[in-house]
Design brief:
Elements lengths: L3 E5 L5 E5 L4 E9 L8 H9 L6 E11 L2 E2 L5 H11 L7 E3 L7 H10 L4 E5 L14 E5 L2 E10 L12 E7 L2 E8 L5 H12 L2 E2 L10 E2 L2 E2 L5 H6 L1 E13 L1 E2 L5 E2 L2 E5 L13
Parallel strand pairs: 4-6
Antiparallel strand pairs: 1-2, 2-3, 3-4, 4-5, 7-8, 9-10, 9-15, 10-11, 12-15, 13-14, 15-18, 16-17
Length: 273
Amino acid sequence: MLEVREVHVAFGARQVLTNASLTVIDGEVVALDKEGRSSFQLLQGLEMEGRKSPTYYYVFDLLQAEGRSLVNQPLEFRKGCLQRICAEAEEPIRFSGEIGGEPAKLLAEVRRHGLEGLIGKQRGSLYEPDRRSGAWIKLKVLNQQEFVIGGYTPPAGSRKHFGALLVGYYDKKRLLFAGKVGTGFDVKSLASLSRQFKKEERADCPFADLPTKQGGQWVQGITPAIMRRCHWINPVFVCQVKFAEWTRDAKLRHPVFLGMREDKDAKEVTREA
């Protein structure tokens, strides 16, 4: 039986250490909605608001077994070992196996069920921590990625705490503005985020390209006068955002806040292709 001794939880990839830390498993904690779909917002609610949702640990790779490193073993070998280890595992641990078939057909099913996408892994690939070799790729149906929070606008109307997040990404060590995110919050998340932001307040804008004019218009309507009303924070917070598309001027169309990403270093956040 798989015995879990220690769990490291951060929103994104997780590792579970089992059997007195002799075995290291890579996986992800997932909260499921009523339709059985993974929901980042529900997972965020567990920590921030104490909500209760069905939560499972989906395991998909094996880095170490009985003290022996497996990172230089091919993917099929690691998955086979992991499947044997998890053969007698009980809930909430679930083994994430291979899905065969044509990528186009699989993505069509993913889209039909309202899921985020697929992870494609090349057969025979090694486990390469902290490196993007191209052997593993994301096949997304929904546009979604993490962004750095550099500030926020003041609240308007009946909303309290703040209006919209000002988010961006790094390009050659410069934090570039990607847009305003004003939806996806509820009363509790607004209050919780506001408390976190106040601890990192700063006087100046961290974005390298604000304010900026394009075609004679201020980008996103952020004029120098509005800049003086915005609240700026140190770019240390990372959030997950879904959006319709990138506009021609490299801004987000219809962005929606999903939750905070505590597993991501802000300096590593770039615009995803």
